[in-house]
Amino acid sequence: MSxxxxxYPPKCMACRQILPIQKKEWRRFRLCAxxxxxxxxxxxxxxxxxxxxxxxxxxxxxxxxxxGGDSFTDxxxxxxxxxxxxSIDAFTDTFGDTFNNAFTDTFDDTSADAFADAFTNTAADIxxxxxxxxxxxxxxxxxxxxxxxxxxxxxxxxRDIILxxxxxxxxxxxxxxxxxxxxxxxxxxxxxxxxxGSNPAIISSASPFQNAILVPVPMHxxxxxxxxxxxxxxxxxxxxxxxGAEMKADLLKRVVxxxxxxxxxxxxxxxxxxxxxxxxxxxxxxxxxxxLIDDIFTTGASLNECALILAEGGAGxxxxxxxxxxxxxxx
Length: 331
Hints:
The chain is built from 14 helices and 7 strands. It is of the alpha/beta class. The chain is globular and about 50 Å long.
């Protein structure tokens, strides 16, 4: 234990109680057992694209994580309009303007049969090359990444912690969450366990991190200087340390300082991040296997734009991992 731990004993990032000296794991995560128990872990079945949890009777009509959604063509830039103008219009016209309402309106008292019936008319309006299988939020959308997997629901205590990190510059909390996330990974799980197993963080194989480059979603330099850190980079560093995967924090650059995504509609979110990312010219990424890392998956707009730019740069397999995902309103 360091001298600083004696002078300034670590506190739970949620309830702020001092963490006991003998509870080394609590101190490493900066989280007490009571608050940790309030985190809602994402369990199977999940959407094969965004990774959102689904009702048990939906499992048979959702593709596995390995299959993902429809991939983008070689002319990736031309596909951006499919994501913003067609796909998100179809999404908002069908489900309303907010992510939560989309889930709530669709899943309340809904079975797999009702799900299929709900899309009978909409599917005819979306061409075969743009329609993908997935949950309501992914229906009719194309993504430049194959799939996303999240560990926790962005809700309750975790939501409060993430907001505290962002608005009160809680770097130690971000470090604690990175350690917690890394502790959930089991790189020795058998192939396929990501689909129906207990660990949704594993993406597509027994060794999803093998030969992969972890790339955190970048912040604009001005915002990073103001906050003092990029929480996505801290999370990625923890995963890289646990898995041995390479992390390139500067592979992507954010070249436009945009307004926050919070409060925007799905279509506005996509438009807000259009053209704001750039591949660092010092890297050659032809055929590279890349895992994008971020703290939250909401509509996937930022991750998709990052993946689009990486695809344009020649990257191969692109998947995403996020600490948390916004799920349907349970009320």
